[in-house]
Specification:
This protein has one domain: Alpha-Beta Complex (Spore Coat Polysaccharide Biosynthesis Protein SpsA, Chain A), CATH 3.90.550.10. 28% of the residues lie in helices and 22% in strands. The chain contains six helices and nine strands, in the order E-E-E-H-E-H-E-H-E-H-E-E-H-E-H. The strands form two sheets. It has a seven-stranded mixed beta sheet, with helices on both faces. Strands 2-3 form a two-stranded antiparallel sheet. The two termini are 29 Å apart.
Length: 224
């Protein structure tokens, strides 16, 4: 059974300029998650789909598991759906199971990746995919001020509110079969959510996220 990690990366980004290559606790940001994927024994190969020669050359030198997919022109640009990139990588590889993550999740633990992969393997007859979420218990509103998950006339304690679960983009685990059978989607028809804590699930989307993630990474060794 072959498990392949997918780590797509662009050479540039809109909201945090060059964030994949930006120095994060003394190393380029993408080095952090790549080193962690390399340590996961269940992962046999790491495919990096990128348009950056700098990322390609650096990644190949870091791990023997790395295989580069040079991003084709049709998949370049900021508006290309991630599932299209995943579809290309799946069609050009021979994995049984896939785990897709991002360089923007540097606090993701090796232990968490292992646990999630093992859970998927042990429950493959019940679930066709697993993806990470973060539990949120707070009073949420739509922009029109309509309450999402509570009655404004009943001031329940936040810990008593029904929880919501945020898709945090830290990882998606799926089989080639489940991806294809659900119209090329990484979340299948029978998914399971894998809960993570708030610190580990920080996703770098804005510059403030970068600052927060770097502070946690520097000061809490368990996330390094």
């Amino acid at each position: 059974m072959k498990i392949i990690a997918l780590l797509p990366m662009k050479g540039h980004s809109e909201r945090v300029p060059n964030k994949n290559l930006r120095i994060f606790n003394d190393v380029p940001l993408f080095h952090v998650i790549l080193k962690k994927l390399d340590k996961v024994e269940l992962i046999n190969e790491i495919i990096i789909n990128t348009d950056s020669d700098i990322v390609s050359d650096s990644a190949i030198s870091m791990s023997k598991k790395v295989k580069i997919h040079k991003r084709i022109p049709e998949l370049c640009g900021d508006l290309i759906p991630m599932n299209e990139i995943i579809n290309y990588d799946i069609n050009n590889s021979d994995g049984d199971f896939y785990i897709q993550t991002h360089s923007t999740n540097p606090l993701l633990k090796v232990e968490t990746i292992n646990n999630a992969l093992q859970f998927f393997q042990n429950n493959i007859t019940d679930y066709d995919s697993v993806y990470s979420v973060t539990k949120r218990q707070a009073r949420f509103y739509f922009e029109n001020m309509k309450a999402v998950n509570h009655n404004p006339n009943e001031l329940l304690r936040t810990q008593d509110l029904p929880p919501l679960f945020e898709e945090n983009s830290c990882f998606y685990i799926f089989s080639k079969e489940s991806f294809k059978s659900n119209s090329n989607k990484r979340i299948g028809k029978r998914p399971h959510i894998f809960k993570m804590n708030k610190l580990e699930s920080v996703d770098i989307d804005e510059n403030d996220d970068f600052i927060l993630a770097e502070l946690i990474h520097k000061n809490f060794p368990e996330y390094q």
